[in-house]
Amino acid sequence: MKRILPLAAAFLLLVASGVGQGLWTGRWGVSADVKAAAARCDRIAMNLGEWEGQPVEMSPEQLAMAEIDGHCSRRYVNRRTGQEVRVLLVCGRPGPISVHPPDVCYTGAGYAVVAPPQRHHVEADPAADFMTTRFAKPGVEPDPLRIFWGWTDGGPLTAPDNPRLTFARAGALYKLYVIRRMGSTDEPLDHDACLDFINVLLPELQKCLSPNP
After folding, report:
1. Consecutive 10-residue averages of pLDDT for the chain (213 residues)
2. Cα–Cα distance between 177 and 180 in angstroms, integer?
3. How far is CA 107 from CA 33, 54, 133, 139, in A?
4. 140-157 as b/e, with b when 16 or more CB fall inside 10 Å?
5. Which partner from 37, 44, 110, 190 sits 20 to 30 angstroms from 206, CA to CA?
6. Per-domain boundaries in the chain
7. In sequence order, what are the residues at sequence separation of 6 or more whose Cβ sits closer than 8 angstroms to the Cβ of residue 114?
């Protein structure tokens, strides 16, 4: 009996570990929490204030490779200034969505980070913050970009140092990119059109991504 108890305890621990890993990796399919959260991506308005949106297609292969269960991919143009930003909101299990920020995945696409990422707070929500940096391609046509990014599980959008750990208990997770093509890599941050757009977008996200809008 004394030998059976440790074996039974070890077996239960193994089963619990396997169940946890299965839920984390989606081994048994997409959970109800993830399905419900993914469906909320479609709630984001196509037009936001002065910004008019157009859908941008993502291939099924891209979505499957990144383990994305729901997304909103759009190009927004300010009808007054002509400024343009690209928005990508993705949703899925916390494991895949918490990794691969743009300073990782964009460098894999041939871009170089121009300056170290920095944290940036926005006016629309004092509890929210983003990481942001600039990217450029080496060579004659640098194609400079400024990207803002952060995560949310339905609360304020934040950019923690370790999103995988911070959101480990979330039922589902969103990651947001706001991207603008710049004229040059030295454009100042304070007057970037992305900031105006983010101040309009954040209230919409809070309304649309809440489980109880």
Report:
1. 42 36 48 94 96 96 93 97 97 94 86 93 89 92 94 94 95 97 93 95 94 67
2. 10
3. 32, 27, 12, 14
4. eebebbbbbbbbbbbeeb
5. 190
6. 1-29, 31-209
7. 133, 134, 135, 136, 144, 185
